[in-house]
Amino acid sequence: LFIICVHASYAVSAILDAFDGWAARTYNQSSRFGAMLDQLTDRCGTMALCMALCRFYPAWMFWLQMSTVIDIASHWLHLHATDLTHADSHKKSDNPILHLYYTNRTFLGFMCAGNEAFYQILYLRAFYPGPSIFGAHLLSYFAALAFPIALVKSLISLVHLVTAAQTVVKYDTDAILAKRHQTAKND
């Protein structure tokens, strides 16, 4: 019963997170603080789930940890890059992959839901793998179906990381060149 309550709470949390974002956009209540808090709570929730999964699946620990590291690092640097450049939103990007990811709500929702489903299925599978069908448990099949979505989501996060790093490097380079130009001008 406890596991069902925990799992249901996590699912309700994800639904409320989506509703909160929709309401903020619909009623023009979006803020930098809200965007940062949303990113932070999303990352912390996924990190906590992956920490539990590392306990249940020690053979997969490295990959679960890498998934978490990529998720946290990419979102942090992406949000930081948008703040440095004073971008209107962290959801605007010239990169075609990120542009699709953020402008196509169906694609974004599918990727986020599929990613969350993968980790939640693994969590449930640790307690009850389901009936055996053709030599594998039912939840193993569901995890296998959701895995490609989680993998693509991680690859998109790597794109986030690279484009954000490029943005920060360009910002730093421009600042250094402007400072050198100003110093040369003053001499």
UniProtKB/TrEMBL annotation:
Pfam families: CDP-OH_P_transf. It is a multi-pass membrane protein. The keyword Metal-binding applies. Keywords: Lipid biosynthesis, Lipid metabolism, Magnesium, Membrane, Metal-binding, Phospholipid biosynthesis, Phospholipid metabolism, Transferase, Transmembrane, Transmembrane helix. The chain crosses the membrane at residues 107-128, 134-152. It is found in: Membrane. GO terms for cellular component: Golgi apparatus; membrane. This is CDP-diacylglycerol--inositol 3-phosphatidyltransferase. It comes from Ancylostoma caninum.
